[in-house]
Input
Amino acid sequence: MRKNINEDKRVIYLSGKKIPMRQCVGCRESREKKDLIRIVKSGEGDGIAICVDRTGRANGRGAYLCDNLECLRRAKKNHALNRAFKINVADEIYDDLERQLGK
Output
């Protein structure tokens, strides 16, 4: 089986198929998109909602996390979601995301 990695490491080609890669905002490791969980910020102004999108199809700006609580805790410690979404994410939202990931 032939494996090529392009220069920016966003896509891996396995035998002619393109596999999208994304970077976890917690541990900063690049992984296949299907192995990560998408966190979505939707809405504008006062109507902002941040939630877990397991389908990967919800509208809004997305950030990716590994499917474990340790990466979420690292993201909280380093304010990674604040940078990804360009807003101040409250601790209550991190707690809510932790409950959603724990299921």
Notes: The two ends are 36 Å apart (CA to CA). The helical segments are 69-78, 80-85, 91-102.
